[in-house]
Amino acid sequence: MLVLFETSAGYAIFKLLDESKLSQIEDLYQEFNTPEGASSVVKLKNFIKFEDTTEALAATTAAIEGKVSKTLKKALKKYVCKEVQDQLLVGDAKLGSAIKEKFDLQCVSNSNVQELMRCIRSQMDSLLTGLPKKEMTAMALGLAHSLSRYKLKFSPDKIDTMIVQAQCLLDDLDKELNNYVMRCREWYGWHFPELGKIITDNTLFVKIVKLIGTRDNASKTDLSDILPEDLEEKVKEAAEISMGTEISDDDIINIQNLCDEIISITDYRTHLTDYLKARMMAMAPNLTVLIGEHIGARLIAHAGSLMNLAKHPASTVQIFGAEKALFRALKTKKDTPKYGLIYHAQLVGQCSTKNKGKMSRMLAAKAALMTRVDAFGDDVSFELGAEHKVKLENKLRLLEEGNLRRISGTGKAKAKFEKYHSKSEVFQYPIGADSTLGKKSIKREHSPEEDGQVSAKKMKLEDGEEDVKPKKKVKAEPEDEGHDQLDNGTGAPEKKKKKKKKSLDASQAEEEMKTESRRTSGAQEREEEKEKETIAS
Fold first, then answer.
1. Where is the composition biased (Basic and acidic residues) (predicted)?
2. pLDDT digit string, tens, across residues 192-218
3. In angstroms, rounded to a whole number, what is the distance separating the alpha carbons of residues 299 and 305?
C-alpha cells in the first residue's frame, strides 16, 4: 500500500510496511517518536521535486481546487500505476476523487489516513533524505507568499483598491470644493456683491478675485486672458458703482489665500480624474466605455471590488445606491425604485421621464455583462462595450420616437408619430323631445297648382256645386320628373310617387261638422240662460 504525501518542495511517495498499523491508529504516534520507529512503519519510495516556485504554486492551487496537476500526473503514471494493486492513501478527499477518475485507482482518505499524514509530517526531515532543512524552509516561505498573492488576486495591472480610493477621494474633493467656493462667494460678496451675479462659473470667479483683489483695482486690472470683452466691461462698470462695504488689506489677503487653495484643489481634481480614467480603462474597459469611468468606479466602490460586482445580478446593479428607498418601499408596500447610481449615466440622462426606467433596466443588464467580461476575461478590449453602447443608443432612439417600426411585407413608409390627445365632447339631450303636448300638426305643403285646384273647389262649394267628383290620381308633369331625376343624381328615372288628395266630400263633411257644433253650442247656451231665469223667478 502506497502513501501520497504533499510537501512544499514536491510530492513524496511512501510505502506502508505494516498495513495493520493503519487500523491501530490510537498508538501510531508512539511509533513516530523516533526516526528509527518511523522508518519501521513507512519507507520513502520516490520523491518528485518541484523545479521552481511557479510549479509549486500551480500544483498547490490545483490541489486546492481538487484537480490533478501536470507534475502529479507524471509521477503517478511513472511510479504508482504500475505498482499499486490495491489502494492509494491520499490526505485530501477531493484530490483522491480526481485521481480515481483520471487513473482508475482506488484512493482512501479518512481519519486514520489523516493521523498517518500527521505522524509522517512530524518526522519529515528524517524520512526525506537528501533534502536539506534550509532548502525546505525557503521553499515553504516562497510558496506561502505566492499562494497569498494568488488568493488575494494580486495583479499590478488590475488593482481594485486604487480605483475605490480614487473615486472616494474625488467625492470628498467635490464636497470640499463646493464648501470653499460658497465660503469665498459669501466672504467676497460683502465687498463686491455684483460680481457673483455677473460671473456664474466658480473657477472664473475665484481667478478674478485672485487677480483684482479689492474692487478699486478692477479698472486697472487686465482680465482679457480669462474673460471675453463684454463680461470684462460689465465687471469694471459694476466695480465703479458697487454697493459693497470696504474691507482692509488683511481681509483681502486671506480671501486670496482661500482662492489659491481652491485653484490648487481644482487642478489636483483634474489630475485625479485623468488618473481614474486611465485605471478604469486598464481594469474595466468595457464597463468604462458603456457607462463612463465615474459611474463604473462608483459601482465598483459600492460593491467592494470588480469581482464582487461581477457576482451581482443585473437587477441588483440597477438599484445599487438606492437601498434605503428599496427597503422603505418594501416596508410600506409601495413601488420599488427603478434606478440607483446608474441614474447618473449618460444614456439614462438622455431619456424622457417615462423611458428612464426601461433604459436603466437595459443598461444595468449590459453593465452586468460587461463587468463579467472585464473580471473573468483574458486580454480584454473595449470593443464589446462600444458595440453594446451603439445598440442601446439605437433602442433609445426607438423609444423616444414612439417605437416606430416598418411593417414587414409592405412598402409603406413609417408614419409620423402623433401623440394621442383625448377630446372631451359633451352633448346635451333635448328634453323637449320627450313631450308631445302642444305640438302643432305638420301639414303637407301643396304645390301652387294643387293650391289653385283646392281654392277653386272651395269656391264651387260656396256656390252650391256639391256633385263634383274628386280626382284620386294626379299625374306629375315633365318638369317635376326632371326635378326628381336631378335630385336622384344617378341618371336613372325614379318611380313616380302616388299622392293622395283630400276629396270634396271630406271637405264638405268637415264644414257640416263645424256648423253643427256651432248650433249645439248656441242651443246649450240658450238652455242655460232659461234655467237661470227660472231659478231667479
1. 511-537
2. 999 989 999 999 999 999 999 888 888
3. 9
